[in-house]
Design a protein that fits this description.
Length: 290
């Protein structure tokens, strides 16, 4: 069940060395150990953070074993976020709306599940990039799990309008219907469209598709990115194909998802340790290592 008062359940910082980890498959590429090591150094928190490639049938048993052995918390990545959602005894509001969990911790016999992706994206947009969201016209490309995980925090940031666009219109409509109540409460004009029929001016365009991972572009008109701030939830050592294309079409500015990655990790760290690290210097450090 959702837990709207997660502060009451959060662990507090302590001086005993505690183990944390990220579970996924594959996991070799994960930057999470470097990010959390930087947070620990910055905040002087005694933690150890590892990454583990978990065989698909063994996920639930691996989670139980980790916490049984005294682990303090887990980050969960592909392909286990929905299974972590199913395991959690208590869900944050963010996790309940996302239908997925990327952060687990165990306290007082309760396994808590949270989803920090949306908060991480919003903090990167507003705190690091200084891109205002309130009152702006947003376009989110894609209708998969990555997009579902960020819609509620984006809507709560009070844009004037938010369009969910997908190659398959029906999938975008499903998300529109799921988040209609949130949008109504926040007075946000929420709509759904397909790529082919997209038109209009946008202040911020967020690519939440997996196209960049495959070296492809979403099939959208160049007009939608002209003069817009364009964000790709994927990151790399150089701008993604989507960001390169957006810049060529006259985008006002471009940014990748590295800041989102670090900010969502900072949210997890805060849940586990009760101390909020500063993300900006860690973003710079990780960027220089790519």
């Amino acid at each position: 069940m959702p837990d709207d008062n997660n502060n009451a359940a959060r662990p507090t910082a302590h001086n005993q060395l505690t183990s944390y980890a990220v579970f996924g498959n594959p996991i070799a590429h994960s930057l999470s150990p470097a990010i959390h090591a930087a947070f620990a150094q910055q905040t002087q928190q005694p933690i150890r953070y590892d990454k583990a490639c978990i065989e698909l049938p063994a996920f639930e048993s691996a989670v139980h074993q980790f916490f049984h052995s005294g682990g303090g918390g887990l980050n969960i990545t592909v392909p286990f976020k929905q299974r972590a959602f199913a395991m959690a005894t208590e869900l944050s509001e963010a996790a309940a709306k996302a239908g997925a969990v990327n952060t687990l911790y165990y306290q007082d016999g309760v396994l808590y599940g949270d989803n920090t992706d949306g908060a991480g994206l919003c903090r990167d947009l507003t705190n690091n990039l200084r891109w205002p969201v309130a009152g702006k016209r947003l376009l989110v490309l894609g209708a998969g799990g990555a997009v579902r995980g960020v819609l509620a925090p984006l809507i709560a940031s009070s844009p004037a309008s938010l369009v969910i666009a997908n190659r398959t219109h029906a999938k975008a409509v499903v998300l529109q219907e799921q988040f209609a109540a949130d949008a109504e409460q926040a007075s946000v004009a929420l709509s759904a469209n397909n790529f082919a029929e997209l038109e209009g001016d946008f202040d911020i365009v967020i690519n939440g598709t997996s196209a960049s991972l495959a070296g492809d572009l979403p099939e959208v008109s160049a007009a939608i990115v002209n003069h817009a701030r364009c964000y790709d939830m994927v990151y790399g050592s150089s701008p993604t194909l989507f960001l390169q294309w957006a810049a060529q079409q006259g985008a006002r500015s471009i940014a990748d998802g590295l800041g989102m990655l670090v900010e969502q990790a900072a949210e997890s760290f805060t849940l586990w340790r009760g101390v909020r690290p500063q993300a900006a210097p860690v973003i710079d450090r990780i960027r220089s290592s790519l």
